[in-house]
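Q: What residues go here?
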């Protein structure tokens, strides 16, 4: 691998979910934040990488293209959605950390899923993309200062702090792994 043994755990002073104030995010995202252990952000992201990779590696082959109801996403769609959402939220975090009075539009997750063509990709391709994105996300967040983590901007009409975005990334993937466990397995 291209990163050192300590890549995931060498980081500046950072924040934990318990330090995020409700005023730093839209209340809709509380359901994701509540799923995250009270770990420093880079550690939570690294733990999520390990868990999510293992979770998707363990899915039975016959489930990858399964839909529990018509028009529902397959596990391939869900993994691509996790990856795409992480990219969007990491970009928001970067933008908010590097600018002031930032305001970004939302994104249509269903349109993204439709245009991602996840079901035409192999499981290995989807996992490699997820891993690459997560490694980049860890690197991004571990290098934010405390002041940058506390900065906020507007995303889809709601306030979000840089740190809240990081923990939403963590909770969002946990949420979707839980959905697969409950409805697909």
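A:
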């Amino acid at each position: 691998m291209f990163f050192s043994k300590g890549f995931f755990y060498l980081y500046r002073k950072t924040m934990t979910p318990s330090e995020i104030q409700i005023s730093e995010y839209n209340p809709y995202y509380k359901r994701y934040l509540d799923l995250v252990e009270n770990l420093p952000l880079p550690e939570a992201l690294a733990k999520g990488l390990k868990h999510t990779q293992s979770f998707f590696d363990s899915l039975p082959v016959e489930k990858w293209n399964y839909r529990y109801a018509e028009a529902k996403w397959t596990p391939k769609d869900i993994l691509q959605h996790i990856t795409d959402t992480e990219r969007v939220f990491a970009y928001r975090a970067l933008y908010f950390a590097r600018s002031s009075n930032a305001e970004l539009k939302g994104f249509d997750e269903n349109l993204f899923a439709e245009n991602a063509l996840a079901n035409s990709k192999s499981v290995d391709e989807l996992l490699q993309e997820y891993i690459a994105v997560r490694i980049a996300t860890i690197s991004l967040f571990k290098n934010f200062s405390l002041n940058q983590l506390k900065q906020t901007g507007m995303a889809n009409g709601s306030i979000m702090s840089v740190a809240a975005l990081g923990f939403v990334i963590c909770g969002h993937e946990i949420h979707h792994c839980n959905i697969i466990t409950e409805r697909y397995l």
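A: Context that may help when evaluating the design: The chain has a mean pLDDT of 93. The CA atoms of residues 71 and 110 lie 11 Å apart.
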